[in-house]
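Technical note accompanying the year-one report. For the benefit of new consortium partners, we illustrate the data format agreed upon in the data management plan: each record pairs a sequence with a structure-token string. No post-processing was applied to the example shown here.
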Amino acid sequence: AKRKNELELLVDYSFERANDISSNSKNWYRVIVLFEDLISIAEDIKYHELERIYFRLGNAYWYYEDYINSMKFKLKALNIAESKGRIESVCTIAANIGVYYINAGQYEEAIKYLEKILEYDIEDKNVDLYHKSNALINLAVSYIELEKYEELQSVLDKLDLVIEQIEDEQHKKSLEVTTSTTKADLYIKTGK
């Protein structure tokens, strides 16, 4: 038990070290090496946030511009989070993957991951609304690009309902501006 606690501390410390490396030197290769070494330890001790390590490794690969490995590790993180029922982690990772696919111009793939977020309800209402609004905004972007205007209108209607529930005024205003811009884009493209 003592050895497991020491290894958990090592894993926790390694997250801090990765933050230092990425913040100070932007040496993504060193971050990748750190997390790749860490994975075997974390798996051996059944580290409670294993998906976090895979996700951070995926992010490091993204910054290193190795997008294939980035996606491989992010998908692994998503799979682990889903298997553990970690809803908030699933939403965070799925949103990140969805945005990746949007940036790659693969809007149908993006939609698959972004819609997954809407299937979940997170206990903390503010966190839930944040994830849902983020997913809906990115779904709107995807539907605009795919010229699927009926689906876009449905997403905008859902987004209006989510915005009504948001208590953080700054977040609410930001979403209202984004929604208005998206509705203007829809009007320009369809005349409706």
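Partners are asked to follow this layout when depositing records. The longest helix spans residues 2-24.
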